[in-house]
Design brief:
Layout (H helix, E strand, L loop, with lengths): L5 E6 L10 E7 L2 E10 L2 E6 L24 E2 L6 E2 L6 E3 L8 E2 L1 E3 L3 E5 L4 E3 L2
Antiparallel strand pairs: 1-10, 2-3, 2-11, 3-4, 4-8, 5-6, 6-7, 9-10
This protein binds FE2/S2 (inorganic) cluster.
FE2/S2 (inorganic) cluster binds next to loops.
């Protein structure tokens, strides 16, 4: 497979502003892990679902990542907050940030981009 393939993810309408995420599986560094896409300030962003504090999934309620203010992505375990548009750690015990996945959205469809260490599950 080409290293940089665009993989269809979902229709754009499936992602509401600061709403419920759409999850998908990827193989990251050889391991199958969950990833998720959200919409924030109109743009779609996607990340590997792995906290930068302890490498565990962040959503206690499936696909709910926004904090009550809908301004931050929150890890449910210890409350780390991340910037939705960059994945950068903003507050809490996280160091660094989330692993970002490149996204493209056309008029109807959202795609994610593979990378050398990030491929679709067969
Ligand atoms: S595991 Fe996410 S804040 Fe601790």
């Amino acid at each position: 497979m080409d290293e940089f393939t665009w993989v269809p993810l979902c229709q754009g309408a499936a992602l509401q502003e600061a709403g419920v995420a759409v999850d998908f599986d990827v193989i990251y560094k050889g391991q199958t892990v969950r990833a998720f896409a959200i919409r924030f300030e109109g743009e779609v962003h996607a990340y590997v679902n792995r906290c930068a504090h302890i490498p565990m999934e962040m959503d206690a309620r499936e696909n709910h990542f926004f904090d009550p203010t809908r301004q931050w992505l929150m890890c449910a375990t210890h409350g780390a907050l991340y910037e939705p548009s960059t994945g950068r750690c903003a507050s809490g015990p996280c160091r660094g940030g989330l692993i970002k996945i490149a996204i493209h959205e056309d008029e109807r469809q959202v795609f994610w981009q593979t990378a050398y260490n990030l491929i679709p599950v067969a």
